[in-house]
Structure formats: C-alpha cells, structure tokens
Amino acid sequence: MRDQVTISLDAMGGDRGAEIVIAGADLALVRHPDLKLVLFGDSTIIAATIKSYPRVEAAALVEHTDVSIAMDTKPSQALRHGRRVSSMWRAIEAVSKGDADAAVSAGNTGALMAMSRFVLKSLKGVERPAIAAIWPTERGESIVLDVGANVGADADQLVDYAVMGEAMARTIFGNPSPTVGLLNVGVEEIKGVEEVRKAGRRLRDEDLPINYFGFVEGNDIGRGTVDVFVTEGFTGNIALKTAEGTAHLIAAYLKAAMSRSWMARIGYLFARGAFNALREKMDPRSMNGGVFLGLNGIVVKSHGGTDAMGFASAIDLAVEMVRNDMNEKIAHGIELYQVQRDNAGAATPMEAVAK
Amino acid sequence: MRDQVTISLDAMGGDRGAEIVIAGADLALVRHPDLKLVLFGDSTIIAATIKSYPRVEAAALVEHTDVSIAMDTKPSQALRHGRRVSSMWRAIEAVSKGDADAAVSAGNTGALMAMSRFVLKSLKGVERPAIAAIWPTERGESIVLDVGANVGADADQLVDYAVMGEAMARTIFGNPSPTVGLLNVGVEEIKGVEEVRKAGRRLRDEDLPINYFGFVEGNDIGRGTVDVFVTEGFTGNIALKTAEGTAHLIAAYLKAAMSRSWMARIGYLFARGAFNALREKMDPRSMNGGVFLGLNGIVVKSHGGTDAMGFASAIDLAVEMVRNDMNEKIAHGIELYQVQRDNAGAATPMEAVAK
Questions:
Q1: CB-CB under 8 Å, B247 with A246
Q2: ipTM score of complex
Q3: How far apart are alpha carbons A184 and B242 in whole angstroms?
Q4: Strand partners of residue B292
C-alpha cells in the first residue's frame, strides 16, 4: 500500500476543461489530503481558475502545454497534432516517466486510448487493453469490460479481459476471490459465438486461479450475479449506454408520476429525503470513470460531460488503484495465464502445429 | 384491414402452460370479441381449464396433441421429437395451412424459431428471420431488432432487418415514415464493425423508401431517438436483457428508498396512485411479445414466465399485425430492396465481379 500518490491530470479535457478538472481536484483533495497532482494545460487558463482553490494550488504542479485535444478529434489526428505537445499526451507521459502514478482525463476516449497505447504500451502478454466500468447492482457493484476499447474479441482476448477484470475486482472491492462470468445470449440454439464458448471452455478447464462462474445474460448485470462481467467492446459499449438510457427513462417516468396530482405532490414532499437518497444512488457521477486495463500504467477516463463531483470520483478511482497496486496484480494474473497457455500448447501437439 | 382474425395458440407453452394461455386468451377476447382461436395441446388439460372461461370455450377450437416441448429442450431435439405432433409445431402449422392468421407461443424461443423456420420458411428475399421487441421510450415506443434470433449479421442481413423493422413500425405505430437507426458504438476510433458501416452506407446511398437516420448509440434507445433500432442478435439480446435488469434494479432502489423512514412511508401513502401508474408504465407485461419477422406467417413469442395479462398482450400484438397486413408490408419492402440491390450490382461491374 503506497502512501504518497501523484496523479497527473489533463486539465484541458472534457466539455468544460480546467474549470471542472480543478474543482474536481479540490474535492478529491478533501478526501485524500496527501495527494499530489500535476496539471497539464494552458497555464494562463489554469492560473485563472486555480487561484480560487488554494488546496489545489498547494498540492499541484502546473505544466504548460500549447495544444488541447478537442472532444471530436479523431484518434489519428490527435496522435499527429497532439504528440508530445498536448495536455493529454503529457499527462499520460508523466505516468510512463514515473512523475505520476496514474493519469486522469475527461477528454475524448478514442484519442486517450490511442495515446495511452502509444505512450504506455501494453502489459507483457496482453494483446489489447480494455476499458472497464463499475456498474451498480442489487448486490452492490460489479465490473463490466470491455465497454468500448475494441470492437470484437477472440477467445484469448476474452480470457485476458477476465484476468484483468478479476484483478481489478480484487483491487477495488477487496474481495479475495471475485466471481467472473462471460456475457452470452440465452437462446439454446445459438448459445453465443464460437469465441465466447471457447473462452468459456478455457476459463472452466484450465487451472487458472479464477473463480469462473459460467455464462451470464444481460439481466444478470443489474442483479450482480457475478463480480466481473466479460464481453467484447461493441456489445459492452451498447449494453452500458442502454442501461444509462433506461435509468434516464425511468427517472423521467418517476418525475412525471410525482407531478400528476396534488396527492402525489404532497407525497413527494413527505418522501423528499427518500427521493434525494434515490437520486444519489442513481447518480451516474458517483460511478464516473472508465479504467484502461492492460497498459504499463493506470489511466482513468472521466465522462466528458461530468461536473466537479464526477471528476473527483474518477480521481478517487485512480488513487484507489494505485494504492492497491492494481497493475502489479494484473501483470501477475496475466503471467500465470501465459504459463498455462504455453503449457496447454505443448500438451497438445495438434494445437502447437495449428499455431 | 381484416375483420375476422384467427390466432392459433400453443396451449402447452410457457412456465405454467394451459392455465396462463387460456386465462390470457380470455382477457384478449374482452378486447377483441370477434377473435377466433385454435388451441393446440393436451385436450384433457385444456378441458379442465377452459370450462372456467366460457368466452374462450365459445371462441376456440381445441386440437389435441400428445407432445409438449419443454422449456429447456434444445431446438434440434424439439424438431426431432416434436415434428408434426407437438402443440408448438401444430400451432405454427395452422398458420402455414391457412387455418390461422398468426401463432402465439410462450414456449422456448430456440425451439419456436427453429420450428417456425422449418414450417413457414423465410419470406422471399429474406435470408434470416429476426426477433423484434417493442421498447418503451421517452417518446413512446420503438422497435428493436434482432433481439436474439441469430448471432452476428452481415450488411445485407442488417439492411433486411431495417426493411422488416420499418414495416413493423408502420404497422403497429401507424406512422407512415418511421425513422430507422443502426446501433453502433460512439468511440471515434473504432466506429463499429465493418458490416455495420457497410449497412449504413447502403441505407444512406441506395434509394430505398426508408427514412434512415444514421448511427445511434445504446442510450438513444431509452430516448426513442428513432422508431426502429437495428442491430445483430447477440448485442440486441444483451441490450434488451441489460435494460430489464436495470429497470429491476431501480425498482429495488425505489422500494428501499420508500421504506427507509416514517416520512417516506407517509409520502408513499399519499403518492400511492402515482406509484401505481409508474408500476403500470414499467410493467414488462404490457410490452410482452417478441415478433418473428421475415417468415411466411406471423409468429409471436410470449415471455415464458408471463401471466394472463402478459399473454393477452402477446395475442393483442398478433391480432394487430394480422389486421394491418404486416407481412404484406414486409414482403413489399423486401422486394423493393431486392430490386435496388440487383440494380446496384449491375451498375458497378467491379462489384458484380466481386460477387
């Protein structure tokens, strides 16, 4: 457990840039008074805001950058124009240089992932990084990955995701043996794509130190049937956003229901405390932060449209993962799996030939 | 618009079989007094239940079958053992023989789809049928397909889904020009699988009589951004079930919030009418029924665990589609698209060669 943690922040990222980043950093510093920060961005803009936040001013080093990556910049363009000189690049680079333990950005996901892969490189044995989200469930919280780093995944990559998600669950839930499930469809006839079935066989048959539960379906996510839900990025991204849309829809229904009559409005006044608690529980800001898993360094993506409270949650998440050595846990898990895979390869000559 | 509609029912399908099917039929007959029914199943079981429902007894013909398909039977087994002799098979066969206009079953989805394909065959020009679901949205209702008939879909199949979903939206929403969107992921870098992009280009560039909106994301479903959401069956199935899980989770939050204090409980009493309205709005039974699109006949799959009210909704849906000639609309749409596709093939020799 590390005591001194330094987080680098892309102060220009997100829909509202420095204003939210600095206000969020201020909230995070209340919870983590020993935290150190490095802010990358336009020093004039940062200076104008930071003076209202003495806590941030005291804890942060400001590094000037000339270039900001816009929210709609394509990853290839971001790499071309933002390499070495953008606030986003420099925040990630601080991690690779050892100047920070983790980076947080509310900038555009595609650019952030492209730069993170370029600067930090994948962990040994990991073919492709994934983005993990923390999901509220009836049993507490679960992790879902990949929610959009890549489209499609083969069996090896799905098993990588399982290993990485399991390490993240151990880190942030403090659960020594989190359960892992593979998202699949329930219809017998089609029982999923071949790669999902193959990944399922590996997770079941190989002697990995993973508490593999089996296949799970979409409705198991809300139930919290397992601690880690593994799927490829296209489906994961659509599932995540579908859930957000559903929560929004129900909130709209609830609002309409509570204003439809005088009786309902009086009821609302009495139950206001309960409604506030519910609102807090459903608040997407408290779950803000997609974690990039499988890189030589920790990067957390905050929602671009979040506010200070949401950005502070993303910083919290980064701090927690640094304090609990998440990347070492992932690297260790991947290494174990590699050994398994290589042994399995040697045991079946036909497979070795096929390779 | 047809006046006389006959629906065949698999009286043995679903978790509770004849009991729910007959009670559901009774509710449907209140709304559609002219409806005729054919019930397939064990005549002893049916006779024991039907005598409590004189309305059903008067409107229904009962056809005895010896075999019922269990909820966990694999489609291949269902075809082997249930061919010609099961209640499910016979209900579908009634549609192909012209004895019924549509079939409804709460039996297992895989078996029902396999038998429907076998008995009814695909509509001319449709490679694969899809399952469409009606989804509540902030703007009313939308259609999402495929929610699990097949895993994966190529560009041609996605365009077929778009054509079929559009026809269904015209039929059940009475909207002469429903909008159609393709589900995709938002991250710039990966902007979806090649097949989705290809389908998007076709829907945009070819001169189909479809009001194509463009790509949409998961959160657009709850918003009701378009009338028809098109995706392949793996993602669609997981999105549908994820939304169900989210609704269940929020209902649990709400229940907990409303019982956490005396004030909240008093508020609940005042707002009880509003809560009941909300519950009705969120009731999955009112949206019950997955529609099999792209077959020579209409088949509606009811949720296996539904009650009489839910089963009645599935019958309603079947009646509505028969009354409004949905299959003729789909067949016409597919034919137009076929002509377009063939013309397009002839217009670009390179493509013709590649074919």
A1: yes
A2: 0.86
A3: 12
A4: B131, B299
